[in-house]
Amino acid sequence: MEAILKILGQNGIALVIGLMVFVPVFRNAQKLFIWVEDQTIGVRNFILESLEKLFIEISPEKITYGLIGMAIFSFLLMVVLFGFIMGAWGISVVMGLLAAFLSFKIPKPVLNYMIEKRIKEYSGQMVDSLTLLSNGIRAGLSMPQALGMVAAEMPAPTSQEYNLILQQQRIGVTLEECLENLAARIPTEDNEMFVTGVNILKETGGNLSETFDTIVTVIRERIRIAQKIEQYTASGMFQGMTIAAMPFGIGGIYAATDPGSMERVFAHPLGIALMVAAVVLDGIGFFIILKIVKIKV
User: Which 3-state string (H, E, C) describes the chain?
Assistant: First the structure.
């Protein structure tokens, strides 16, 4: 009788826990499905769009297989580290699932960094490209011909972007729409000023070469101011990096001179919790310092 009551009690607890999980999941099933789709198919679509901006061609199937393979590899790596090596099989499964989930998050910051780097390269080439455009217009070339000249003379990414404009024109897209697409791919103030200036002058008439010269002057002045601001904020950036690195440096000194004093930090649950809190707070402080010293021109 006692055994039956014990089994019923265990089943009752399991039933209550199951209902506590099932009810909120069922009520938010649509949101859950949307979230799952965003974390899987949405990641693949984001990668495809980002690679298109980077002028890298790859099939959707390869991206899907790559994401699945990276998730499986991350899961197995955690199982090997925590399961086979450390013997903690329960933790290995949890860490494996977490690593598999995080593997879907890794491509986004990497691609964002690559796109930002490409935009900076394009912005750095704008003075030369607009100067070539201005000289071509003065020499009697039309706007498409001047764009073709710049595409032939300039390196990537400017040559890629201008070649794409010419390709879109060949299939019947208007120059105004091509330039608006360029502004969408390269969302900088200088590029927006260039696109807006060309589109307005195409409608109202005016001297394009003088407009390009004015934009070049503005860009050069902005670059000069940005360099000056970087000089002024360099000390603040260095101080922020020093402050963020100090806890790790002090911890390393203690670990080297008195290893026994650091054992409890990594062995006791309270020490681990305090270490995690310290790392999180240190990261938050460094992020705030970066926001303070970073000035947008």
Answer: CHHHHHHHHHHHHHHHHHHHHHHHHHHCHHHHHHHHHHHHHHHHHHHHHHHHHCCCCCCHHHHHHHHHHHHHHHHHHHHHHHHHHCCCHHHHHHHHHHHHHHHCCCHHHHHHHHHHHHHHHHHHHHHHHHHHHHHHHHCCCCHHHHHHHHHHHCCCCHHHHHHHHHHHHHCCCCHHHHHHHHHHHCCCHHHHHHHHHHHHHHHHCCCHHHHHHHHHHHHHHHHHHHHHHHHHHHHHHHHHHHHHHHHHHHHHHHHHHCHHHHHHHHHCHHHHHHHHHHHHHHHHHHHHHHHHHCCCC
